[in-house]
TrEMBL record, chain A:
<dbReference type="InterPro" id="IPR036890">
    <property type="entry name" value="HATPase_C_sf"/>
</dbReference>
<keyword id="KW-0808">Transferase</keyword>
<keyword id="KW-0597">Phosphoprotein</keyword>
<feature type="compositionally biased region" description="Low complexity">
    <location>
        <begin position="179"/>
        <end position="197"/>
    </location>
</feature>
<dbReference type="InterPro" id="IPR004358">
    <property type="entry name" value="Sig_transdc_His_kin-like_C"/>
</dbReference>
<feature type="region of interest" description="Disordered">
    <location>
        <begin position="130"/>
        <end position="208"/>
    </location>
</feature>
<dbReference type="InterPro" id="IPR002545">
    <property type="entry name" value="CheW-lke_dom"/>
</dbReference>
<dbReference type="InterPro" id="IPR036641">
    <property type="entry name" value="HPT_dom_sf"/>
</dbReference>
<dbReference type="InterPro" id="IPR051315">
    <property type="entry name" value="Bact_Chemotaxis_CheA"/>
</dbReference>
From TrEMBL, chain B:
<dbReference type="InterPro" id="IPR039315">
    <property type="entry name" value="CheW"/>
</dbReference>
<dbReference type="GO" id="GO:0005829">
    <property type="term" value="C:cytosol"/>
</dbReference>
<dbReference type="GO" id="GO:0006935">
    <property type="term" value="P:chemotaxis"/>
</dbReference>
<dbReference type="Pfam" id="PF01584">
    <property type="entry name" value="CheW"/>
</dbReference>
<feature type="domain" description="CheW-like">
    <location>
        <begin position="3"/>
        <end position="143"/>
    </location>
</feature>
<dbReference type="InterPro" id="IPR002545">
    <property type="entry name" value="CheW-lke_dom"/>
</dbReference>
<dbReference type="InterPro" id="IPR036061">
    <property type="entry name" value="CheW-like_dom_sf"/>
</dbReference>
<dbReference type="GO" id="GO:0007165">
    <property type="term" value="P:signal transduction"/>
</dbReference>
<protein>
    <recommendedName>
        <fullName>CheW-like domain-containing protein</fullName>
    </recommendedName>
</protein>
Length: 766, 150
């Protein structure tokens, strides 16, 4: 029923547009009665309305347009000449069509709109072209009669028109004269519906009619809008940056408003180009049905998030990869009924499509409950095809092995079917998705099923990017490829190591191959490996670290395409204009990844040589660094269950304690600032909080800001003790206090540990 | 007599001219974003009212050592194949109107890099103006015969 509703909506929108055109055409036709072209166009329009109304079972509309069509076809074929009488009849018909459409729009039905008189009027023109001349007045009255109340205004109009055109009446030519009179009187039969229509609308409700609530817009115009908004975003960024350096409260407020308005404008303009993903999903049920039928499988297709919207151009780009993944899931993922039953699964497999927004991207998941990907088989195939070496395989995690299916020319299908496995494999899917700045990954459990996940940017023109500095220049890295950021702190003894001349970094015990941006770009290479940043990037199923001098920030950038001459260089995906108006180049992560290839191999060899890559001596601890006033406080990451932002107004008081409602529980809150005896200077609308949960009990430690998460060898520690602290250490060149978490928790919830039988000291930081 | 207007400028004390119809604007600019790994003739990129424009170092195109981009340079922005490209020059001259019959093909003695870029010469009262082919001058994909190393 809903679908029918949609069809009717579309029909109404289209018909309203067509009718406006028709009005103009008919009037123009009167001036140029011989125009075959115009007649054909009018004929087609009426024909379309007739066809659709027949299909939608609007019988009055159908009979009416049918009558009009008959007259039009005679006129078109030259069987009779266009004259004012036929023009009147046709205009009357158009008006009645409009009345009918209005009724359909408001009530869903045709109501009791009188069509007979108009049909009769049209018929008269057909049967005897000269007849209308004989009784124009009578007919006008007859037509006007049913809608008498609203006719008055039109009548006045008709009269003024008569007065305004005295000449034709005076001319008294035998043939055209009476006809002219008819024309003068014409508004009376036709105008009532037209006049009545708006009156009804304003009178009944202010609801905008369909014709008014949507318009067609040239895509070029939308592109221009999009481009202009892009410029505005850049200018906004510049102003925001500039204003942060001055301290004029009024200007700051204005800038915040500008910031907000720009974001909203950007969002709205982006929305004009958005279409629900259902546009490409709607074809998939058929694909799944046909395919599963031909393979003797039973597959249920479930869709979640149909209404999730994507830029139109991206939607097109995603269509083929998505279809391929769905076919692949039905073909290779879901087993036959017998196999499934044998495994104790329901005979009917389920394929779930899910689309949702996440962090400025749209995620599309294709999930089946089929056989899952056999890691062993993937590994064997990869070996057979020479995609990897045995050594490399030995060191790969199963997730990495599964990712090998994205390598060119890879297909694990036991037999090549006519469905997939024709070499048009996952590598094509991957390439297509990466071309639009997206990413694809896969997660699979043998026997349970497989989930393919597409990460797609919301729009092509504006992307989230990390800006970094290297040498004297800034570069932008698309955020989609950035996994994490690591600061190599010269002070804490962390360092970039070299194996066989290739730089590597120990990231949580694993060797991460590094690519130095300065070296890759042929810039002067800095001497020190200390105090640099590593952006951990992911591309082509390979993780590597990009060494840069500084990480600046994350911002939305407008991608400007590069001309051929720059593209040929190969490391740039485009250019953008950053906050201060300078141009920054956007790095192409996949091509950097290819450059990391050599480094990666060296790292792999090293990994093999040093089976134990744990750093020597000292225990590594991962710490969350929080800022409290001027102080930095470290909290062991084990004691962090979640990081939350609570709106200040949601923090309520219970007695002398503060609490916040959190996931249907009352969560005790302690402000670290007051615990540590600092002034609480946070005045934002939200406060960051560290939530720790143990055995169903939670507390929230409110801090001023979350600074970083670091790995540290806790060696350079002093016992300089203060209330609420277990000591201090130098982390990232700054003295950082180590929080006595247990005490903090107890301050928030004195009974936190009371019901737990064991309280181990190991919880307390070190 | 048919005549044409040329926007003139100097590079390495030589007067050049391009058809004024191709010139969008002329401006002084000094903050260029270098494009590592790009041909040396690409001086850098800059932001002209929201457009990213590539600046082509005419010195390099003419086989001379590249200019020091920390010193402000003049940009002659020309439209080539619907794309704006900036030609970096030393000094801007006047717009002059020249009769077509003052035009002479480039002398045979004109060497190397110059020869590729020059479509003709005009004899002015006291000096020679070389008419530049803007498209070839802006084309950085053609390797420049190396006369000097950078």
């Amino acid at each position: 029923m809903d679908e029918l509703g949609d069809i009717i909506q579309e029909f109404l929108v289209e018909s309203h547009e067509n009718l406006d055109q028709l009005d103009r055409d008919l009037v123009a036709l009167e001036q140029d009665p011989g125009s075959r072209e115009m007649l054909s166009s009018i004929f087609r329009t009426i024909h379309t309305i007739k066809g659709t109304s027949g299909f939608l079972a609007f019988h009055r509309l159908e009979t009416l347009t049918h009558a009009g069509e008959s007259l039009l076809s005679r006129l078109r074929d030259g069987a009779q000449q266009m004259n004012p009488a036929s023009a009147d009849a046709l205009l009357a018909m158009v008006d009645t069509v409009r009345t009918l459409l209005g009724s359909i729009e408001e009530t869903g039905g045709e109501g009791d709109v009188d069509v007979e008189s108009v049909i009769a009027q049209v018929q008269e023109c057909i049967e005897d072209p000269s007849a209308p001349k004989a009784k124009p007045a009578a007919k006008a009255k007859k037509a006007a009669a049913p809608k008498a109340p609203a006719a008055e205004k039109a009548q006045v109009e008709a009269e003024t028109e008569v007065e305004a055109e005295p000449e034709p009446v005076a001319e008294a030519e035998p043939e055209p004269e009476p006809v002219k009179a008819v024309k003068a009187a014409e508004p009376s039969p036709t105008a009532p519906p037209a006049a009545a229509h708006p009156a009804e609308e304003t009178g009944q409700n202010a609801r905008r009619s369909i014709a008014e609530s949507s318009i067609r817009v040239d895509v070029d115009l939308l592109d221009t809008l999009m481009r202009l908004v892009g410029e505005l975003v850049l200018t906004r960024n510049q102003i925001v940056r500039g204003v942060s350096e001055v301290s004029d409260p009024a200007l700051v407020r204005t800038t915040q408003r500008l910031n907000l308005i720009t974001s909203e404008l950007q969002e709205s303009v982006m929305k004009t180009r958005m279409q629900p993903i259902d546009h490409i999903w709607s074809k998939l049920p058929r694909v799944v049905r046909d395919l599963s039928g031909s393979l003797g499988k039973q597959v249920k297709l479930a869709m979640e998030g149909k209404e999730t919207e994507l830029d139109r151009s991206l939607l097109e780009a995603v269509k083929d990869p998505l279809t391929h993944l769905v076919r692949n899931a039905v073909d290779h993922g879901i087993e036959t009924v017998e196999e499934r039953v044998a495994k104790g699964k329901p005979g009917q497999g389920t394929l779930t499509l899910r689309a949702y927004h996440e962090g400025g991207h749209v995620i599309v998941e294709i999930k089946d409950d089929g056989a899952g990907i056999d890691v062993e088989r993937v590994a064997q195939t990869a070996l057979d095809r020479g995609v990897v070496t045995r050594d490399q395989l030995a060191r790969m995690e199963s997730r990495e092995i599964i990712a090998l299916v994205f390598q060119p020319g890879f297909s694990t299908a036991k037999k090549v079917t006519n469905v997939s496995g024709r070499g048009v494999g996952m590598d094509v899917v991957k390439t297509n998705i990466e071309q639009i700045g997206g990413a694809v990954d896969v997660d699979s459990t043998l026997g349970k099923g497989t989930t393919w996940r597409l990460t797609i940017p919301l729009t092509l023109a504006i992307i989230q990017a990390l800006t970094v500095e290297c040498g004297a220049e800034r570069y932008a890295i698309p955020q989609v490829g950035v996994d994490e950021l690591v600061f190599v702190d010269g002070q804490s003894g962390q360092a970039i190591e070299h194996v066989s001349g290739a730089p590597v970094y120990r990231l949580r015990g694993k060797l991460l191959p590094l690519v130095r941006l300065d070296e890759t770009l042929g810039l002067p290479v800095r001497n020190s490996d200390r105090d640099v940043y590593i952006a951990v990037l992911q591309a082509d199923g390979r993780r590597f670290g990009l060494v840069v001098d500084r990480v600046l920030n994350t911002e939305e950038i407008v991608v400007k395409p590069l001309t051929g001459r720059m593209k040929d260089v190969g490391v740039y995906a485009g250019a953008t204009i950053v906050g201060d108006g300078k141009v920054a180049l956007i790095l192409d992560i996949p091509s950097l990844a290819r450059r990391s290839h050599l480094a990666a191999e060296a790292a792999e060899r090293a990994q093999l040589d040093h089976a134990d890559t744990r750093p020597r001596g000292g225990s590594i601890e991962r710490l969350l660094i929080a800022g409290i006033g001027e102080r930095r406080v470290a909290i062991p990451l084990d004691m962090v269950t979640r990081l939350e932002e609570f709106p200040v107004e949601r923090i309520e008081r219970v007695g002398s304690r503060e609490v916040v409602q959190y996931r249907d529980h009352i969560l005790p809150v302690i402000r670290l600032a007051s615990l540590l005896g600092c002034y609480d200077v946070s005045e934002g609308e939200t406060v960051p909080a560290v939530v720790y949960t143990e055995r169903g009990r939670s507390v929230a430690l409110v801090v001023e800001q979350i600074v970083d998460i670091v790995e540290d060898h806790i060696e350079s520690r002093s016992d300089l003790d203060d209330d609420g602290l277990t000591g201090s250490a130098v982390i990232q060149q700054r003295v950082t206090e180590l929080l006595d978490v247990r005490r903090a928790i107890l301050a928030a919830d004195p009974r936190f540990y009371a019901e737990m039988s064991e309280i181990t000291n190991s919880m307390v930081g070190a | 007599m048919p005549s044409r207007q040329y926007a003139t400028f100097e590079v390495a004390d030589q007067l050049f001219g391009v058809d004024v119809a191709q010139v969008q604007e002329v401006l002084r600019f000094h903050e260029y974003t270098r494009v590592p790994l790009a041909p040396t003739s690409v001086g850098g990129l800059f932001n002209l009212r929201g457009q990213v424009i590539a600046a082509v170092d005419l010195r390099v195109q003419l086989g001379l050592p590249p200019r020091d981009l920390n010193v402000p340079a003049m940009n002659v922005i020309v439209s080539v194949d619907d794309e704006w490209v900036s030609l970096l020059v030393d000094r801007i001259g006047e717009v002059i109107e020249l009769d077509d019959d003052a035009f002479e093909p480039p002398p045979d003695t004109l060497a190397g890099a110059y020869r590729n870029l020059i479509v003709g010469t005009f004899k002015l009262q006291d000096r020679l103006m070389l008419a530049l082919d803007a498209r070839r001058a802006a084309d950085t994909t053609v390797p420049v015969p190396a006369q000097h190393s950078a």
